[in-house]
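Q: I'm writing a short methods note and want an example of a predicted protein-small molecule complex. Could you take the sequence and the SMILES for adenosine-5'-triphosphate and return the bound structure as tokens? Please keep the output block clean; save any remarks for afterwards.
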Amino acid sequence: MAKQIICENAALGYEDGIVTEGLNFTVSSGDYLCILGENGSGKSTLIKALLGLKPQVSGKIEWCEGFKATEIGYLPQQTPVQRDFPASVREIVQSGCLSKTGFRPFYNKEEKKLAESTMKQLGITELAGRCYRDLSGGQQQRVLLARALCATRKMLLLDEPVTGLDPRAQTDLYDLIASLNKEGITIIMVSHDLAAALKYASHILHIGKKQLFFGTKEEYMNSKTGRSFIDAEVKDND
Ligand SMILES: Nc1ncnc2c1ncn2[C@@H]1O[C@H](COP(=O)(O)OP(=O)(O)OP(=O)(O)O)[C@@H](O)[C@H]1O
Ligand SMILES: [Mg+2]
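A: Understood, no commentary inside the block.
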């Protein structure tokens, strides 16, 4: 499969220091990469670096195939303020087309059509006129996924998309994401849900101060990092 991202020995951080370093991984078309790691390990920072919002401190993050950051659909990690956003569902989904409009101050017919068909695909057409902040957490995540899909059919970057959802809504969203991946859309997902990562992902990137791993899911399950993380999780759930 065609390579889309090559990351070589990248270090990421802010003014006050390095957050994570020694990152080596590749993403190919159709991959489903799960990024695991404890709170503060730098997962969201890596997503921002991939989007070009935060340059790496050193090393290389290269986009292949003439990919542009604007061709990526991005679902950010949610904060309570964002959950309270006072716009309609349709407005939010359409805003996914903004990278296509350039300086044009309105959406054209095609973009409006894309927003409607994406809402239909994700089963949220009947919510189109509702205010985003009045929706349930699961409905809100679907809206944000529809928004991300309006930006691209190539790659989705999802930062903890199922956080705060009940188990049923989590499964629904995971299944939806898996079906988009089957259509050929590359998925890069930050997650704390190890069980789901092991079920759905093709590749795992585990970042942290002490552990660093990149490989296929099967390689991860047989690795020292993977084994210790899986064992700790099993103990926590006992
Ligand atoms: N804008 C910023 N300026 C300075 N430091 C930051 C900034 N954003 C994040 N950090 C710090 O960088 C580190 C990594 O943060 P990041 O948000 O990438 O972690 P994460 O792995 O996504 O964590 P979580 O699982 O809690 O979402 C943390 O120590 C955080 O405090
Ligand atoms: Mg984060």
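A: Remarks, as requested: The first strand starts at residue 3 and ends at 14. Strands lie at 3-14, 17-28, 32-36, 58-63, 72-75, 155-159, 186-190, 203-206, 213-216.
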